[in-house]
């Protein structure tokens, strides 16, 4: 099993979710996030905004979406490829995807572990 963490543009969330469902992803956790990368934030001087020190105001953290998905290792590459393809715009700030091995997963309600804990079918039975 692998934990896939994707940081993407907020505008891409619905499209990424729809494509993940098409390839069989049965669940994900999505949270709002703020961060910076190479762009180091956005200066807003062009809007005429100034801080208390009368310097151009800048936003140091850019709004992002963080998606976390635990999947069976045999579909990890397909999930990563789908996220990358769908979230890609070609512009700076598209995001990143990280893959982390997961040693154990437990469904709290039933005690099912690992692959069984990830399966939607058993959860509904």
Automatic annotation (TrEMBL):
Pfam families: P-II
Signal peptide: none
InterPro entries assigned to the protein according to its UniProt record, in alphabetical order: N-reg_PII, N-reg_PII-like_a/b, N-reg_PII/ATP_PRibTrfase_C, N-reg_PII_CS
Superkingdom classification of source: Bacteria
SMART domains recorded: P-II
GO biological process annotation, one example: regulation of nitrogen utilization
One Gene Ontology cellular component annotation held by this UniProt entry: cytosol
Protein name in UniProt: P-II family nitrogen regulator
